[in-house]
Design a protein that fits this description.
This protein is α+β, with helices and mostly antiparallel strands. Helix content is 26%, strand content 23%.
Amino acid sequence: MKTIVIAAGYATRLYPLTENFPKPLLQIGKSTILDRLLDDIDTIPEIDEHIIVTNGKFASIFEDWAGKRCGSGASSGKSSASLHPSHSLSLRACGPLPFKRPRAATDCPEDAPKPQGAVKPITVLSDGTFTNETRLGAVCDLLFAIETLKIDDDLLVVAADNILEFSFRGFVEYAKEKGTSGIMCHYEPELYKLQRTGVIEVDKDMKVLQMQEKPQEPVSHWAVPPFYVYLRKDLDLVRHSVENGCGKDAPGNLAHYMAEHTILHAWPMPGARFDIGSLDTYEEAKLKYAI
């Protein structure tokens, strides 16, 4: 299983803080948002690699971060003309791709010294965009990673702007137990919050019956955060999702599409999460997670 971290956005709501620096690498206490996520995911035995999909503007910053996380102090970059995604029919549905060749940098080589807990290889992949106006969107960034790196494995897909007070381990084990792709969910009592997110209807076994995106009349109080497990057996659906009408921008677009085309189960979050989406919530997170 591989982790794919969707980190190619431009976080315009946090400007000027993120105008020239990626939100996932903002400091929270003694760590960063992304390091906090990966420190937990590194403990999951099934995970063998982290793939960070970013943009051309922030790629070098992520590469430097990855080298330091692995203890090597530098990145070992590699690029290949054979990676050009225009060769992929499924990616053509994402529209014109504003680059000639992607960059991929694989860090944490086997012989590199590794700090305790940071044991999984990290690949930083640039989607080649440089502005918010030309961004590919979360779903197309995921397809870009799958096609470019020729991924044929189970996936844990996560957004990099949340702090969790529980482990992803239970989520991965739950999907394995159910034998289906899966999404997280949490009970949300506030109507206005449900109207701003994905909402699911489930049966008694937590099988997803339907998913709504930002509904005015939610079918339940089960809200969906941006964390997903897509099993290898469902990757063909993922690859062809956009060309078959799936939305491109938000990761929840793909979950909605998958709920209509395969069996998904929902895992109720066993703890809290903190979504960092503005300057105010970032300052609040710094206070809440100062240690």
